[in-house]
Predict the structure.
Amino acid sequence: MANAFKKMANYLGLVDEEALEVETPLPVEEPRRSVRPLATPAPSAIPSWAQSSSVTAVPAVRVSAPVEVREAAVIDRIITLHPRFYNEARVIGEHYREGQPVIMNLSDMDDAERKRLVDFASGLVFGHHGSIERVTSKVFLLTPPNVMVSVEDKTAAAEASFFNQS
């Protein structure tokens, strides 16, 4: 890789040809070794010279970061929002992070802001392992990972509809 940069610098006239001939060796990295947690040795395994009163064995302590545990939210309602501006994306995100399904009706937005909000919602859903479905051309359903939406019922309803003449 360094040779490519040197050749490009020579081509542009930034370096003399003599600088190209001198090659600097790359540092060689040593392979990393895995680190295992320390175990407390058995008393018989401690050498006699280490059993003096000035040396004490300290047991290994494993420290782990606290893990945030969230309980599954009870889904007792679906939030329906009609944003008019992209600034209202925060409200959508807050409801979705609480584990509530959100219906976004974007019919009141202009095309540029609608696209930005759909991109935001897609990233939000992807980050929380949920799903996003298009209900109509301007209405989207954001569902958290603990909510399943059945597609079969939707297609069966569309086929059974009297008004569906396609």
About this structure: The chain has a mean pLDDT of 74. The radius of gyration is 31 Å.
